[in-house]
Amino acid sequence: MRLVCAGAAAALAVACAAGWADTVGDCGHPIEAPLRSRSDLVIESRPAGITVVGTDAETIRVSCTVQHDADPLDYELRFSGTPGYGRLAIAGSGPVHNENLEIRIEVPRKTNLRIHTGAGEVKVEAVTGDKDIDLYAGQIMIDSPSDAAYKNVDASVMIGEVNASAYGVDKGGFFRCFTRTMAEGEYRLRAHVMTGEIDLQ
């Protein structure tokens, strides 16, 4: 019995290790890995322009481009996790100006997103699911598909503007926020910028 249990434990350890293997690339080498629909994805990035787009494929695909004579090999793309939960880290030793780096992330159309980056631009297009986005300085733009019915919406800026055309809201100045709760919704949307702008479309 001990041998059977030991063998099962060893097999489980191997399976877990295989499931959590890192997929690593850079701006010269895009990465791709399995990611199921309705999975959770955490994205942590250095300053950059980030575009997250929903697709019909059950994979995550990440590519990036650089400008101003930056070396594409200086920016690392690292995905770890399983098909049901993933973590994407974008780092690098190149210049810290966010305009130097543009990142495109393709995910299943139904994906729960949590995104954190210091500065830049975050765009989310055609993705249905929970969204939790934090940005220190810059702009968050969320273009939700028609089936992305939100139960809770919470958008706030310390200094800047909140535009929520889908809800008829346009607020600018200091400590601007917009919250709404809807009984018929399914998902949660939270977006926060210290200094900048939030656009909900």
Structure characterization notes:
Residues 1-18 have low confidence and may be disordered. With 201 residues, this protein is mainly beta. The chain has one helix at residues 2-19; strands spanning 23-26, 31-34, 39-45, 48-55, 59-66, 75-82, 85-92, 101-108, 111-125, 131-143, 150-164, 169-181, 187-200. Strands 1, 2, 3, 4, 5, 6, 7, 8, 9, 10, 11, 12 and 13 form a 13-stranded mixed beta sheet that branches. The chain has one domain. Strand 6 (75-82) and strand 7 (85-92) form a beta hairpin. Helices cover 9% and strands 62% of the residues. It contains one helix and 13 strands, in the order αβββββββββββββ. The longest helix has 18 residues, at 2-19. The protein is globular.
List the helices and strands and how they pair.
Layout: H1 2-19, E1 23-26, E2 31-34, E3 39-45, E4 48-55, E5 59-66, E6 75-82, E7 85-92, E8 101-108, E9 111-125, E10 131-143, E11 150-164, E12 169-181, E13 187-200
Parallel strand pairs: 3-7, 3-9, 4-8, 4-9, 9-10, 10-13, 11-13
Antiparallel strand pairs: 1-6, 2-5, 5-8, 6-7, 11-12
A few lines on this structure:
With 201 residues, this protein is mostly beta strands. It has one domain.
Radius of gyration: 19 Å
Sequence of secondary-structure elements: HEEEEEEEEEEEEE
Helical/strand content category = mainly beta
Number of strands: 13
β content, as a range? over 45%
The oligomerization state is single chain
Largest sheet: 13 strands, mixed
What overall form do the CA principal axes indicate? globular
Could you name the ranges where pLDDT drops below 50 across 5 or more consecutive residues?
A: 1-18
Name the average pLDDT. Answer: 84
| Measured distance between first and last alpha carbons | 59 Å
Total individual domains: 1
Q: How many H/I helical runs?
A: 1
Overall helicity: under 10%
